[in-house]
């Protein structure tokens, strides 16, 4: 019998290996401090989500086709770095929070990110409903790289205390944290784009920029 149940799929950007390693180290540190290991347990790689969409299993082939269409069109909207393996450079401005439940690294919302987000939704929304309470549509989107998620009040407070102890004031991103054991990136090379099922996290496609 055909599966008509909607599931949520995300289109995401991934970083160079050095930046990914630094962010994974920070995710591990927050997991140790807060006791929340959701990102590690579910093998969620560091990323920025450009959009989330509801889709049935039978519609996945169409979703994949539109994902590839978006990849091809994305080159028209970005000021690319002159490097065959880097699509563009993303910069980080601060560490921020959502609703006392999520701690994240906040990218600078430049025209590259805004244009990609708009282009993706122009392609997807005529065919698929926006997921995650429409939090990724252009007028509501706040780009973020999750460091700790699904936090209880106690876990969130532990995370905030950790940031304060490490000298993160007003959310600013320092060069190092935790006595130098954790290094925060101030920028990242965006090197690939992915399509994934959100729950449980399952990567369906990843295209490297070459």
Q: Care to describe what's here?
A:
- The chain is of the alpha+beta class and 210 residues long.
- It has helices at 17-34, 38-41, 60-74, 111-124, 153-165; strands spanning 7-15, 48-55, 88-98, 102-107, 145-148, 176-177, 182-183, 187-197, 202-208.
- The strands form 2 sheets. Strands 1, 2, 3, 4, 5, 8 and 9 form a 7-stranded antiparallel beta sheet that branches.
- Helix 3 packs antiparallel against helix 4 (111-124).
- The chain is globular.
- The chain starts with 6 loop residues before the first strand and ends with a strand.
- The mean pLDDT is 89.
Q: What share of the residues lie within helices? A: 25-40%
Strand content: 25-35%
- Detail the poorly predicted runs: none
Mean pLDDT: 89
Shape: globular
Order of helices and strands: EHHEHEEHEHEEEE
What structural category do the secondary elements indicate? alpha+beta
Cα(first) to Cα(last) distance is 40 Å
Number of strands: 9
Please summarize the sheet with the most strands: 7 strands, antiparallel
Q: What is the overall number of helices?
A: 5
Radius of gyration: 17 Å
What order do the helices and strands come in, and which of them pair?
Layout: E1 7-15, H1 17-34, H2 38-41, E2 48-55, H3 60-74, E3 88-98, E4 102-107, H4 111-124, E5 145-148, H5 153-165, E6 176-177, E7 182-183, E8 187-197, E9 202-208
Helix pairs in contact: 3-4
What brief labels describe this structure?
210 residues, alpha+beta, seven-stranded antiparallel sheet, two-stranded antiparallel sheet, 5 helices, 29% strand
């Amino acid at each position: 019998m055909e599966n008509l149940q909607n599931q949520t799929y995300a289109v995401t950007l991934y970083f160079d290996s050095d930046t990914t390693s630094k962010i994974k180290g920070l995710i591990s540190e927050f997991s140790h401090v807060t006791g929340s290991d959701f990102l590690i347990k579910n093998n969620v790689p560091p990323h920025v989500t450009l959009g989330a969409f509801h889709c049935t299993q039978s519609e996945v082939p169409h979703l994949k086709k539109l994902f590839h269409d978006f990849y091809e069109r994305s080159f028209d909207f970005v000021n690319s770095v002159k490097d065959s393996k880097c699509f563009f450079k993303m910069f980080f401005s601060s560490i921020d929070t959502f609703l006392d439940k999520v701690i994240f690294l906040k990218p600078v919302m430049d025209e590259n990110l805004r244009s990609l987000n708009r282009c993706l939704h122009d392609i997807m929304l005529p065919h698929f409903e926006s997921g995650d309470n429409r939090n990724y549509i252009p007028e509501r989107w706040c780009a973020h790289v999750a460091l700790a998620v699904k936090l209880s009040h106690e876990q969130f407070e532990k995370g905030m205390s950790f940031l304060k102890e490490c000298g993160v004031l007003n959310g600013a991103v320092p060069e190092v944290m935790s006595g130098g054991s954790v290094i925060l990136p101030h920028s990242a090379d965006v090197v690939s784009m992915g399509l994934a099922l959100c729950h449980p996290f399952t990567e369906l496609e990843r295209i490297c920029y070459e």
